[in-house]
Amino acid sequence: MIKKFVIKYRSLSISTRASIWYTFANVLIKGIALLSTPIFTRVMTTNEYGTFTIFQSWYNIILIFTSLNIYLSGYTKGLLKFRNSVDEFTSSSLSLVILVTCGWGLIYIINIDFWTDVFQLSPVLMLAMFIELIVAPPFEFWATRSRFNYKYKKYVFASLAMSFMSVILGVITVIYCSRKVEARVYSDVFSRALIGIIILCILFARGKTFYNKKFWLYNLKFNIPLIPHYLSNFLLNQSDRIMISRMVGNTEAAYYGIAYTISTMMNLVIMALNSAFTPLIYKSIDQGKAYKIKGETAPLFILVAFLCILTMAFAPEIITIFAGKNYAQAIYVVPPISASVYFIFIYSMFSTIEYFYQKTIRIAIATTISAIINVTLNLYFIRIFGYYAAGYTTLFSYILLALMHFIFYRLIVKDKLGSNIEVYSLKIINVCSIVVLSSMLLMALTYRILIIRYVLIVLMLIIIFVKGKDIKKLFLN
Fold it and tell me: Which of 303, 262, 415 is nearest to 353 (CA)?
């Protein structure tokens, strides 16, 4: 049995093996963080945990302006564009990020009191944030390049080591320190810094390039138009918690934060899958083999839909185990957020094609529209229905975002590849969308009726196992 498995594994292509390991590593990292959540939610008060959640939210906003997210799709495309000078391109791109980060750091230092009022975070926490803003990008550059070259072993090891260190140090310091928010933040920053600084030194030693006009101009032209997209994407992902904190309270933000974290644990799987398959998609298009992408990606949509439904189905049990009964009321946020995760995956796959052809303005327009709608709906519905409304406004916004990206994707495919090419299976996407939304409604209605919910879960599993092959044929034909 084991021998057959090993033989089958070795027969897989390097890209498939890399995708498996990247996904496994990211799921395990998320699992480690999730398993540690019960400790932090029990040792920290809801207000302290809410403050830590707000710190993470602001970090993700500020990272957009300091890093310009240069290490994402623009860097991946650059690895193809500057294939003969990758080391120089990498070190030059990293130096640009560090320079921009230092610039924003000076702006903060000039008027600390003003920014303290804006962020509602102490200078001690902001110092930790700026350290993290410096040491996190080197790891991201290295990780993106590793994925591009399918060199997954070192990446998996480094990622797991950093994650274990963060959680272990976090648990120890939070238990024994009186200032628990600072303890949790600095333990995480220390873990990132230890590995990030080493990688930073390696990247500069290899590239030996601080400034290169061609590389800097490429990065700025590619990424500056995307700032509205990245900022709007953050608003879709994180603004709910900040708005709930300001409009309702930190405790409610903590409830929503826990539900959101649990619901979007599959989002890390999605990010891993998308990151792992992006090099394959880019290389396939670059080599004139776009027609192969459909077969490679078809199972992914089914897998993501299944995982999202699974999260919805066991939301009450997951929240009780990982956060405790104090957070039980947050279970009704899980179904819409879990459904949102599926539509995040859809739009991310469509936008991969847009990134390849550098249609960044279209990407920014779509995300900005969705973010504005999301914030507007939150302002209205949170006041009426409380923090639960944020889950459904998020779902609506992501459905809209997926539809806009689909339109842009179709225009690009028709123009660049031909009207007869279908990069992704629209049949699978549509059927899975209907199933996910139907499951959302069913699960939300049956959380209080345990027997009915379990019967539905068992029936779904029976259908999958008994009719799995027929379902697969129906999808793929």
Answer: 415
Amino acid in the structure at residue 296: E
Q: Are 167 and 32 in contact (CB under 8 A)?
A: yes
Measured between its terminal Cα atoms, the distance across the chain in Å is 31
Which amino acid is present at 31?
Answer: G
Q: For residue 400, count other CB atoms closer than 10 A to its CB.
A: 17
The answer for residues whose C-beta is within 8 angstroms of residue 112's C-beta and 6 or more apart is: 123
Please, are residues 172 and 102 in contact by the beta-carbon 8 Å criterion? no
Q: Which residues contact 122 (CB under 8 A, 6 or more apart)?
A: 116
Note the Cα 238 to chain centre separation in Å. 11
Integer Cα distance of 231 and 364 in angstroms: 9
Q: What is the dihedral of CA 333, 399, 310, 168, to 10 degrees?
A: -70
Helix, coil or strand: residue 151: coil
- pLDDT band at 402; cut points 50, 70, 90: very high
Amino acid at 227: I
Q: What is the pTM of this model?
A: 0.71
Distance between CA 140 and CA 70 in Å, rounded?
A: 10
Give kind and range of the element (H or E) at residue 80: helix 73-81
The span from the CA of 278 to the CA of 20, in Å, is 14
CA dist., res. 458 & res. 477, Å (int):
27
pLDDT above 80: residue 325: no
The CB-side HSE value for 110 (13 A sphere, CA atoms) comes to: 6
- The answer to whether the CB of 239 falls within 8 A of the CB of 374 is yes
What is the Cα–Cα distance from 240 to 245, expressed in whole angstroms? 8
